[in-house]
Specification:
With 307 residues, the protein is mainly α. It has one domain. 68% of the residues lie in helices and 0% in strands. It starts with 24 loop residues before the first helix and ends with a helix.
């Protein structure tokens, strides 16, 4: 049996008509006697096609502005923009919180903290609900501004009670976000249906616990003594520091929530969503990072308050 090169199983080598579909194929199919003008015309056509291809590869890639489509890079810049607004208003919240502090009034105010929390919640709900039909970036800007007021207010208050705690919480937050992003970018961690179900169950449980704990704190129930209610009690059950342990668990949940955010952004890009949808991804990342920061701040406060 004669040796047969599998490369020649290509249809171009099996069917005489197949050669017509290849570049220059029509000219190749008429090798038996084409005219000089036909050969020159085909060569010119091939040269023009080659020039167009070279021009396409030489030109810069179309970005989000040219295509009006969501991209990872554009979403990153939107996220940076929201955090820039947050940082500006956080400075204002910090100064507002510390303004009343003096020799006669040694306590900071919690008004910026409360105003920022309520305003951030209102505009966050308004943004994400209306985004189901139409994305309104102005609502995202307002949310970032109030969120900054909240972050600045609560940070200044905690810093007044425990000097140096804001730097520690900020550094820890950046480390968690950086490690999570690196693991996601390398493909070593991904969102899965099973993990997401467990995450949702844990989130619901923590939400119920937080609401109960908040109620005990507001009504000053004896069992919930301390600034953080049940979470302040290191000896609540068997002498275990439940506040710190639950806080670590919540930090893990927040890190997985970041993974979900990153996955949603990638899915939005693959689906070819409009560019404006990038604001939804940016706001979602901000919600998670602020949640992570506040939780780390609370863990550090519990740990330092028990010393």
């Amino acid at each position: 049996m004669a040796f047969k090169n599998p490369a020649f199983d290509n249809p171009a080598f099996q069917d005489q008509r197949a050669v017509q579909t290849y570049p220059g194929g029509q000219n190749a199919a008429r090798l038996g006697g084409p005219t000089q003008s036909a050969t020159a015309q085909q060569a010119a056509t091939d040269a023009a096609a080659q020039a167009r291809l070279e021009g396409m590869y030489a030109s810069p890639a179309a970005g989000a502005i040219e295509t009006d489509r969501m991209t990872v890079e554009d979403t990153v810049w939107k996220t940076v923009g929201l955090f820039a607004i947050l940082l500006v208003t956080a400075v204002g919240g910090w100064l507002w919180t510390m303004a009343p502090v003096s020799a006669l009034n040694p306590s900071p105010t919690i008004i910026p903290w409360i105003v920022g929390m309520i305003g951030g919640l209102v505009f966050a709900l308004a943004f994400f609900i209306t985004a189901l039909k139409k994305v309104r970036p102005l609502l995202a800007f307002a949310y970032a501004a109030f969120e900054g007021l909240f972050v600045g207010g609560i940070s200044a208050y905690f810093e007044f009670l425990w000097p140096g705690i804001v730097f520690q919480a900020t550094l820890a937050t950046l480390v968690v976000v950086g490690v999570t992003l690196a693991l996601f970018a390398s493909g070593k961690i991904r969102a899965s249906k099973r993990a997401t179900k467990i995450f949702m169950i844990a989130m619901i449980g923590y939400l119920v616990f937080s609401l109960v704990n908040l109620g005990l704190m507001i009504f000053n129930v004896p069992i919930a003594g301390g600034a953080f209610g049940l979470l302040s009690q290191p000896s609540f059950l068997f002498g275990i520091p439940w506040g710190v342990l639950i806080g670590v668990f919540v930090v893990i949940m927040a890190a997985y929530s970041l993974v979900l955010n990153f996955d949603d952004v990638q899915r939005g890009v693959r689906n070819g969503n409009p560019r404006v949808v990038g604001w939804v991804g940016a706001a979602g990342i901000m919600v998670t990072v602020v949640w992570l920061y506040v939780e780390i701040l609370r863990i550090l406060a519990i740990a330092r308050g028990s010393n």
